[in-house]
Design goal:
about 20% strand; 6 strands; 3 helices; alpha+beta; elongated; about 35% helix; two-stranded antiparallel sheet; four-stranded antiparallel beta sheet
Length: about 110
């Protein structure tokens, strides 16, 4: 059975790789803006909803793959601004709840 310490260690190692999926070696975002169907180009603003959505689009497939690797399913919050943002639910009745906002407290492992 997967222990809390083992999963937390793997999660921390995984989290350290995520920056490389949204930014280049120079630290700049790989996604620079949006193009609409009329070919208008819009720069990305610093609006937290936009930034959050970009992170979800870029990182969610990787989070799903990570969870699957350890036998967890990913469960998202049912409503916006509900915490935790992401829960990992294990086959053995384990649940790890993780907010993805920097102001929220860290992950908590439930049995």
């Amino acid at each position: 059975m997967l222990t809390k310490a083992t999963f937390e260690s793997a999660l921390k190692t995984f989290a350290e790789t995520l920056t490389g999926h949204v930014s280049g070696t120079d630290g700049q975002w790989t996604l620079k803006g949006f193009i609409d169907t009329f070919q208008n180009i819009y720069a990305i603003s610093s609006d937290t909803k936009i930034v959050s959505k970009i992170l979800e689009i870029h990182l969610f497939p990787r989070i799903l793959a990570f969870a699957e690797q350890y036998g967890f399913a990913v469960v998202l919050a049912q409503h916006q601004n509900y915490y935790p943002d992401i829960s990992f639910e294990g086959k053995w009745g384990q649940t790890l709840r993780c907010p993805h906002k920097s102001s929220a407290p860290g992950c908590s492992f439930l049995q």
